[in-house]
Amino acid sequence: xxxxxxxxxxxxxxxxxxxxxxxxxxxxxxxxxxxxxxxxxxxxxxxxxxxxxxxxxxxxxxxxxxxxxxxxxxxxxxxxxxxxxxxxxxxxxxxxxxxxxxxxxxxxxxxxxxxxxxxxxxxxxxxxxxxxxxxxxxxxxxxxxxxxxxxxxxxxxxxxxxxxxxxxxxxxxxxxxxxxxxxxxxxxxxxxxxxxxxxxxxxxxxxxxxxxxxxxxxxxxxxxxxxxxxxxxxxxxxxxxxxxxxxxxxxxxxxxxxxxxxxxxxxxxxxxxxxxxxxxxxxxxxxxxxxxxxxxxxxxxxxxxxxxxxxxxxxxxxxxxxxxxxxxxxxxxxxxxxxxxxxxxxxxxxxxxxxxxxxxxxxxxxxxxxxxxxxxxxxxxxxxxxxxxxxxxxxxxxxxxxxxxxxxxxxxxxxxxxxxxxxxxxxxxxxxxxxxxxxxxxxxxxxxxxxxxxxxxxxxxxxxxxxxxxxxxxxxxxxxxxxxxxxxxxxxxxxxxxxxxxxxxxxxxxxxxxxxxxxxxxxxxxxxxxxxxxxxxxxxxxxxxxxxxxxxxxxxxxxxxxxxxxxxxxxxxxxxxxxxx
Length: 581
Prior knowledge:
The structure is a single chain. By secondary structure, this protein is an alpha/beta fold. 64% of the residues lie in helices and 11% in strands. It has helices at residues 2-17, 21-50, 60-109, 112-117, 120-162, 164-173, 175-211, 213-218, 222-248, 250-274, 280-321, 382-389, 412-417, 433-437, 446-455, 459-463, 482-496, 512-526, 561-567, 570-579; strands spanning 52-54, 57-58, 343-350, 359-366, 371-375, 397-402, 405-406, 419-422, 431-432, 472-473, 500-504, 530-534, 546-551, 554-559. Strand 1 and strand 2 (57-58) form a beta hairpin.
């Protein structure tokens, strides 16, 4: 399984690298050049040693000529390595950029059910931490693996040309390095995989706790959270320690093998030299080759362990990229320009998971301009209906039509543009107050923004901010209260004024006095617009044209406020429970 995963991951990586073939070819050519020059220098050094015959028998002109050649070779090698490293950096960070771009693009088209089923921290860990780790392994592979392999092959060639028997000694001891590297690689893959997954779990917990610190403190869950973090941190420490231990024994193990090779060459070469089979200069050259031959095994074995970690991380990011995207818009999908607001839900069935039924045989016809309120106990499917209307989820069966066209035959972008949505959960992005208000209408004028803010009763508190509409806020709203953040979201919709509105507990975080003012503003805004209102406070929906009472995914009552009260059914009980004295 591990080999299959590594092979598949490598193929994926090579596809990304393929776009940068010219830089890769240049890097390989320079790697070959620098290796050849590096191996040529020992030959020159050996020739210089042979020119030192004895006292008074030193060919200084010949040695100086050789030293010039060595200097030129070293300069060319240094420049070649610099350019090669530049190419490797170029390839690595462009590949990483492409992978991150693909991952983020996939996040934009993933169905909402994927995000609902995965911890946000783990997703962030894949796109950030895992890609960084993969970049480190890939860069090490480029900088050390290519030159290491070339050095081994070229060194063998030079040694064979110099002396075949001594070369055989080197070749016989070499397999020990491969056995060591294979043993370590087998051990480290599963450990690095566990380390990466545990790190994602830890990131998820940290992200969750930071976002919900107030809730944690409110319910005095600090100690429980610290205990859970300690447990995850302990597991991360253990698996990281194991992974680092096995990867750390790589260098000592391969150095031991290198010492065997070097010792073997030294002893056997000395015996050959004594018998006149090789000159002292050639033996010194051979010893240098033996050292250069074994050195790449250190680097390659280190690269192997890093690549194991890199492959694990790459596999996690590729899992994200390979996730099934949401069903794309049909090629002939209609662009909904300006909806009339005629919405028809017919025989709609939907469930988030197959074993748990939710929306069943849901039927609803909404005429243009109607205000439809949806009420019912928690978990009855109110917000799910909103998710289906916006096509965040597709129905399992049945159909939802807008102006007579199935929404699956309408582009998602144009469908959602025709809806204005204010949710109980506010969402703001880092930027100025103005940026957040005109998100749906970037070309809005200052006058339009102020009119919308006044309509939502947000203008007064905005003007009290340090820089007014130019005040910069963070993604969580900074020092703004929950009510103020919700007012900004309401202002955002009032600026766009789309033909259809969805208000899901839109005034849940606003004081009663401001709520009355906003309800009046909403009433004015909803005139002539099809509106869906989800509310727990039934006082806010008494003026709705149609009230749908839901329970267990079904509409159990339907009518206006007076009609439903007169029936004395489920709605009447809900209403009376809120206003009973």
